[in-house]
Amino acid sequence: MDIERFRNSPAGRLVRAGPGDAAYWAFVPHPLPPDLPPDTELMLASADAAYALGELAALGRTIANPHLLIGPFVRREAVLSSRIEGTQADIADLYAYEAGQMAFPQLAADHLTDDVREVANYVAALEYGLTRLQSLPVSLRLIRELHDRLMRGVRGEHATPGEFRRSQNWIGRPGCSLNEAEYVPPPPDEMLEALDAFEKYLHSDDRQPRLVRLAFIHQQFEAIHPFLDGNGRIGRLLISLLLVEWELLPLPLLYLSAYFERERQTYYDLLWRVNADGDWRSWALFFLHGVAEQARDASARAKRLQDLQAEWRARVVHERAPALTLGLIDELFRTPMVTIPHVAKLLGVTYHSAQRHVERLLQAGVLAQAPDQSAGRLFSAREILEIATR
Fold first, then answer.
1. Among 299, 264, 367, which Cα is nearest to 73's?
2. Cβ partners under 8 Å of residue 37, min gap 6
3. How far apart are CA 177 and CA 164, in angstroms?
4. What pLDDT shows up at residue 373?
5. What backbone torsions phi and psi does residue 229 show, to the nearest 5 degrees?
6. Which residues of the chain are modeled with pLDDT < 50?
7. For residue 386, what are the β-bridge partners?
């Protein structure tokens, strides 16, 4: 870690840790909130982000069955947030996994299997967190519970899922030592104090707009880096959960990982520039621009999904399809890749009845058979996947 760069940081302090020749320097961020005087550019960016988010919230409240439409949003976020950490799985891989197709030889033997499990865990952690918000606010306890679900049964499981670290971690190029690291977060004792202050800020009031507060919270969590693995994904999960808890959105419709993944180097540079230089303003502006951009993107995608759902329903109604076929169309927005047994379970019908419903949607052009499925038949609603990934 470049000690001289961090020595006079307005955002925190250096501490010396470790015994004798093993001693090292680490950075402890000051408690939130920072002193960030308002200026015209920051106020305009905050207002623009709030307006775009308000439009998305209004759209979310008008969707007849929004829980069917948020599935592609949640999974797109899971894929992109995990990709920032190096996974290669895409949304089609995730849906195939959820449809039970990981037993297929061509997928099970692939290195993507571990990646897909990590992405699926992200979905499970987010869905768990949204349910848990009904009885527990965003807190250190909830953060530990999210981490337990994120890391269970995947690479990094050795990193004590659900527990804050008891040893030092660091950030740097692969294979670097502690003293060669680019950034060393607080030692365990200092980390616990920083987490206590972090939780107090979560539950406090602040004169700053809530979206600016959210920028503070995300950066501070990454600076504390309280887990041995999974910190980036948990930090991004917190954004989605706080937007819902603070009632800025009725549902988890906004995700910033697409923006962070596309601007990955800037994202990391600005996070660490706060620690080294106290440059909260540049980070907050970057974050607010991301909120505005992704809120508008999510609104456009949600409208396209609504239009597609209406078009498909009209198409099968014209062919006098039974109500269960309409129900299957709705379920495709939750899970756009299915097998016959999967459809039978979704609709509560026999295998042969499920097969007939799938055949109707194949004839209507709603479903298409995925290629190269030697061990079984997998069907996909390609237009939903295109809207989610385009």
1. 299
2. none
3. 21
4. 52
5. -155, 155
6. 102-109, 374-375
7. none
Q: What are 197-201's contacts with CB under 8 Å, separation 24+?
A: 197/31, 197/32, 198/31, 198/32, 198/140, 198/224, 199/139, 199/140, 200/31, 201/31, 201/32, 201/33
Query: What's phi and psi for 230, nearest 5 deg?
Result: 90, 10
pLDDT of 1 = 83
What span, in angstroms and rounded, lies between the C-alpha atoms of 228 and 144?
12
The 8-class DSSP code of residue 82 comes to H
C-alpha closest to that of 60 among 251, 247, 239, 246: 251
The pLDDT assigned to 366 comes to 95
- Cβ–Cβ under 8 Å, residues 183 and 6: no
- In order of 109, 267, 348, 387, the CA distances from 118 in angstroms are 16, 22, 29, 23
Give kind and range of the element (H or E) at residue 14. strand 12-17
For the chain, the structural domain boundaries read: 3-300, 319-389
How many residues in total does the chain contain? 390
Q: Domain 319-389 belongs to what architecture?
A: Orthogonal Bundle (1.10)
CATH classification (class only), 3-300? mainly alpha
Cβ-based burial of 47 (10 A; exposed 0-12, middle 13-18, buried ≥19): middle
Alpha helical stretches, state H, 204-321: 210-224, 231-245, 257-262, 264-277, 280-318
Query: What is the model's pTM?
Result: 0.91
